[in-house]
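Reviewer has doubts. Consider these tokens.
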Amino acid sequence: MIKFKQTLWLWLACMCIGISSFNVQAQQNTLKLSLDEAKTYALQNNRTLQKGNISIDLTEKSIWEQISAGLPQVKLSSNYQNYMGYKFDIFGMSYPLTSSFNAQLQVSQLLFSGNYFVGVQIAKIAKQISVSNQKKSELDVIQQVSQSYYNVLVTQEMKKIITENLVNLHQLLKNTEAMAMAGVTERTNVDQLNVEVFSMENSMKTSERQLELAYNMLRLQLGVNANVELVLTDSLNSFVRDEAISSLMLEPFVADNSYDMVLMNQNIQLTKKEVNLAATNFLPTVSCYYSYTDKFKQSSFDTQPPNTFGITASLPLFTGGGNYSKVKQAKLKLKSAELDKDNLKDQLSVQEKQLRFNLRNAYENYLNQKKNIDVSNRVFGNITKKYQQGVSSGLDLTNGNNNLLLAQSNYISSLLQLLNAEAELNNLLGKK
């Protein structure tokens, strides 16, 4: 009996552990997110942003690599030589060369190099560009996550509308079949409704495929695999706030604060440094070194001193005009970059006006479609009542249902257009 109880308790413990593990696994495979939580999650897990962080780390290492070239360089080397019994004759005398073994420690230091100093500055600007690129990528990811989030909610809403329509059509079909059997209506009305039901069922299958595609796009932006179930906790209508849209429309835009302009200015700085780098080819390069050689085994003929100190300097005197050509090329690149900056400033100004127009137009369209759907609901309700009373035909009912579905679809599309226009303007203004 005691053994049985022990076995029973062990079995129950294993069951509890198994259930607990299953629950943990289920939680790991389900991700519940509001839009703000989705943005935060994407900033931490989006693979494009992770690659951007790696690029920043690489530029930091590149700066140190550039700086290290101007720091003292220490090198230790050793040398063993065996002349294999060779002898040389001087004034009739024969001298054998003995083997030798020595170790050399050499310290060198760069004293002056224009290329070095400008190269360090270029490496630092390259890091600034990587950081700005990363911040711009973060804004792009935020916009993409927002639009993907909206797309999932819109597709869900369309599926819900189609489902409700399908339920209503099935009920109408059932009632119409009963009316046809009673001789109150024609069999043609039943056939028309059957065609409408088949069409709506196909629309349902299409919406299911579109919903899975929308979820996969959001998974891709979040950086999760396809097996993770996403549960979106925000509702679609919660994003439409009249005061927020009005405030966004009035928010000023400063082109110089745009990351596109920041990157352009940094690119111009980089191009200016490239002009300086080309000019440094006319400057001398100076370095010094000290070496100490410890001769563990000295050759019979050895004139090398143990201590050596030297200074080396080089100055290009004539390069066939190559250095001058490099300077001219760098200056032309700088002029081209400045023209690109002026062009970008104009493009941003045009883009700002267009995005504000898009948002205003999308908001007005949304309000119109919202009114339209109320009217369409009332019209379809009246047609349904008349059809049930035998006043309206099956064709009237079908047309009324199609008009209602079109109004609902237009309303959802206008809502998505409004939210996307808002996300695009937020991106331009640098808002997360």
Observations:
- Residues 258 and 428 are 7 Å apart (CA to CA).
- The domain at 54-71+113-283+321-428 is CATH 1.20.1600.10 (Outer membrane efflux proteins (OEP)).
